[in-house]
Amino acid sequence: MKRSLSILLAGMLLVGAVAISGCTDTKMEIAGTEEITTNELIAAVGTHGGEPESGFNPITGWGYNHEPLIQSTLFKKDSNGALINDLATDHSVSEDGITWTVTIRDDVTFHDGEALTAEDVAFTFNTASEAGGSVDLSMLEKATATDEYTVEFELNDDQATFINKLAVIGIVPEHAYDENYGQNPIGSGPYEFVQWDKGQQVILEADQDYYGDEPYFQKLTIVFMESDTAFAAARSGQIDLAEIPASYAGQEVEGMKIVALESIDARGISFPTQPDTGEKSEDGYAIGNDVTSDVAIRKALNIGIDRQTLVDGALNGQGEEEFTGVDKLPWGNEEAIIEDGNVEEAKKILSDAGWEDTDGDGIVEKDGVKAEFTLLYAASAQERQALAVAVSEEAKELGINIIPEGASWDKIDTLALSTPVVFGYGSLDPTDLYLKYYSESYDPSSYNNIIMYSNPTVDSYLRAAITSSDQDTANENWQMAAWDGETGFSPKGDATWMWMATLDYLYIMDEDLDIGTPKIQPHGADIFGNILEWKRTEN
Amino acid sequence: MSTAAVTANRGLFKGFNLRQKTILLISCLSVLLLAIVVSSTFIDDNALSTDFRSKNLAPSLEHPFGTDWMGRDMFIRTLGGLGLSIVIGALASSISTVMSVILGLLSSIGKIEDSIVSWLVDLFLSIPHLLLIILISIGLGGGATGVIIAVALSHWTSLTRVVRAEIKQIKTQDYIHISRNFGRSRWWIAKNHILPHLVPQFVLGTIVMFPHAILHEASVTFLGFGLSPHQPAIGIILSESMKYLSAGYWWLAFFPGLSLLIVILAFDMIGENMGKILDPKRAHE
Q: Which helix (H) or strand (E) holds B70?
């Protein structure tokens, strides 16, 4: 009995694994596949993590970094990343940078017919600030509606980048907001929420009273699937658009095209910059790392690793080299970009700093400390796994032993203060730099300044940048923080992180689908960012 | 049974008698399994390193099992995974055997001890096995050690039951009563009269437990517990291969799955034939 059971189990594992692709083709049932009319679109795109756990609620993070579809925001970014008005008609900032006044359109209604007023805007931001969701609103003191169409935001810090927060939080109706809002959202965006079948799909329909351009696609169905399943579904014609893994770039499907969208979504390795003194964080997690706290190690890796090899190999060619985490953005510093893949130079940096291989095992040591550390990556993210493994193999040449280890985020959170982690960042909001490198941003309960970086010069640039209302001055200071000729957070300076590459997001879509000029793709991508431009071309 | 006896001596290896054939079969299979374990320990990091220029290659002479999405040779990965599985299986089997010996003998001492042991067995059996493994491995902080210890610590129940039943049966035998009447202590009886009868049970139980432990290790790693996804473990290899089936890379699942099946069958056959040798009643089958 036991014997036959074990054989049966083994056989099932084998047969099951082989048969599963067949199952996904035949058993997947998607509502609305019976008759696809041309102005309907069925898409399987991840948009950062796929199905939102807490529903379509901007307060808890829906739409942050990507088009919320159901809700609309005060400002939007155009395809160049510049801010444009959406709900807002105008805005002004007081002399001291503390009071922001925004006027909004007077012709906007929510999908339930109620008018959208300044009260709703104030309510949204006050609630989001209290909720402490994924958008950092710590600088917001309070928002008040001064009249029906004017909102005043009072800050506790004169951060000029506050306007970016106004571009990421969708406005929710005060009269219809409760803790279940995410399950049944009402907004003022181009699409009205119809139905959410948890674990399967969400159905949206174009709102006929939408104040902006009318979308071509009247019905939008977003199905939630793993990207490989999505590919199978696209191939069998069940869906019109699917986000697919980079390894599928070479596939060909009749009647469909593969489109790669460049993104600013960078993958980098955080290097704890403080030594391990035995100190623990409030939660009892270890802090600091004796190997990565040596700038020579960080610099050697930054200079010695060949990023193009990583892109060609680990990312299947679907990406671009990245050096500072913000290379492609207006606040990226070209001067900070280095010549990489230089193994000789990297070895020289190590030996100059006293790292020598004394015991002949190919790994350098200094004062009895081996140049060895664990590199954590999220086990669920394939590209991070590939990057971690590829970096660790390249680092062997430099005499640095990197041990990749896949883990869940829960586990990574307990180790991130003492162990390098492969992170992903890509935001159109430069505040990201402030949170990452400003010494006082360090907060063990978040990923802010997780490397405990502290450089007074960089701090002063960052502070100047975030408080500067003039865009050019701000960008100049952001750039100087990376490299001012003497110091900075970039590989030329303190080499605080090792940024490796930005990803391309890969989609397979119907041949006749025209997605216009996509917006800049942030972390997690935002393919629906310009949904209003989308159409099907006539055959 | 009679037909088996007639046909048994035909075909290959005519010169050997049945017992020799059985031993030959057992040794061949053992050598195969041993070869897997030994060769897997010789795999160094370089053999498992990525080569992105040769990724997703179909099986060929250079890569008999093909290569995966990072250009790693699937044959070596599979070998590494099976080696790990067998080691975990060996560990689980030996720990379980030791535990069941101890618990079995403990239960033979007296009524209270017996009910404690059967209560323990019932307790562990009442939790679904896979769940128990996951619970223990998370309780131990996850990681490879977590999985190994969890698999090792959760397989003793059924063997303990068998041992306990066997002991109960032996204890009713006359010579036990006589020995007792001669004034031998319970411990002496357990050691000298009962234990020798249990040896075949232990040997068989250990071998039959192997496939169980291996499959459980594969299932747990398949579900993503324990090992990092870049490490070779048969469950990880299989779960990773699922992602590539819609791209048509069938070899990623097929060969590792088949290898797992072969290893399981090998253990099974060893167990079965070992039974024939050790059990006098079945020796002529």
A: none
Q: How close, in Å, is residue A241 to chain B by CA atoms?
A: 16
All domains of chain A in start order, with CATH: 3-255+511-536 (3.40.190.10), 265-502 (3.10.105.10)
**Domain range annotation of chain B:** 19-40+64-278
Contact A247 B69 (CB under 8 A): yes
Chain B residues whose CB is inside 8 A of the A2 CB are 158, 208, 212
Cα A239 to Cα A30, A43, A220, A229: the distances in Å are 9, 6, 11, 11
Q: Of B218, B242, B265, which has the smallest distance from its Cβ to A20's Cβ?
A: B242
Residues of A in contact with B258 (CB under 8 A): 14
Q: Quick one: how far is CA B124 from the chain centroid?
A: 19
CATH architecture of the domain with range B19-40+64-278: Orthogonal Bundle (1.10)
Tell which of B46, B54, B85, B246 to mutate to test the A interface (max A CBs under 10 Å): B246
> What's at A298, amino acid-wise?
R
State both tokens at A533. Answer: 């431009």
Closest CA to A142 of A157, A131, A129: A129
Per-residue pLDDT tens, chain A, 539 aa: give them: 455 555 555 555 555 544 444 444 433 444 444 445 678 999 998 755 578 888 899 888 888 888 899 999 999 988 888 889 999 999 999 988 899 999 999 999 999 999 999 999 999 999 998 887 777 888 899 999 999 999 999 999 888 889 989 998 999 999 999 889 989 999 999 999 999 998 889 999 999 889 988 899 999 999 998 888 888 899 898 999 999 888 888 888 989 999 999 999 999 999 999 999 988 888 889 999 999 999 999 999 999 999 999 999 888 889 999 999 999 898 999 999 999 999 999 999 999 999 999 888 889 999 889 999 999 999 888 889 999 999 999 999 999 999 999 888 888 999 999 999 999 999 888 999 999 999 998 988 889 999 999 999 999 999 999 988 888 899 999 999 999 999 999 999 999 999 999 999 999 999 999 998 888 888 888 889 889 899 888 75
Q: Hey, how many other C-beta atoms are within 10 angstroms of the C-beta on A287?
A: 17
Type of residue at B181: N
- Count residue pairs from A and B with Cβ separation < 8 A: 114
Chain B residues within 8 A of A7 when measuring between CB atoms: 211, 261, 264-265, 268
DSSP assigned state of A148: T
Contact state of A393 with B242 under an 8 Å Cβ cutoff: no
Across the interface, whether the CB atoms of B52 and A390 are under 8 A apart is answered yes
Residue A481 identity? A
> Is some CB atom of chain A closer than 8 A to the CB atom of B228?
yes
Q: Do A21 and B215 touch (CB under 8 A)?
A: no
Q: What is the ipTM, given to two decimal places?
A: 0.74
